[in-house]
Fold this protein.
Amino acid sequence: LQRVSSADAPWMPLLADNIADAAAAGDIELPATPGPGAADIAAASEMSAEDRDAMIASMVDGLAARLADNPDDGPGWQRLARAYDVLGRTDAAQDAFVSAADVLVADADAQLAALQAIVAGNAEDRLATAAERLLARLVDQAPARPETLYLRGHFAATSGDGEAAREFWQQLLDRLPEDAPIASQLRAAIDAL
């Protein structure tokens, strides 16, 4: 079905996800899938902006519907989060990153990606409970990681605990080269506490 379908067929994202799920379940390594061919790119470039947007929205909505039926697909949630992010749907992207992290509990990178989405989108209030849960996992899995130290300091500062923020950020600053781009920003943040 994948070989005989056009690249922009509305079922292609779901089909690709189902093939990947079946391969994973059967412990089968899939060959790398090539990107769209020249004909596919030409066809997409000839579409109107509205048609392209509708096609993309349909693909994203199809992935969201599939995840509603299969919520334990961590990589699927990550794909959905990235798609929402590209579409500028910040809240939906943050929620999808959190869903991915909640499925991929033992994956420090998934926790970090969700926390970074929360912080970058200023969603600490909206997703306070999730942020607390994700940060606890990240601290448990990677306590000395630079990103962990930064985020611990960030959340301490936003909760009003300047002393803890100073401690975490100073630990991070002590590990950075003097001329690291973030070093001056950390010094300024510490001084502002």
Notes: The chain has a mean pLDDT of 87.
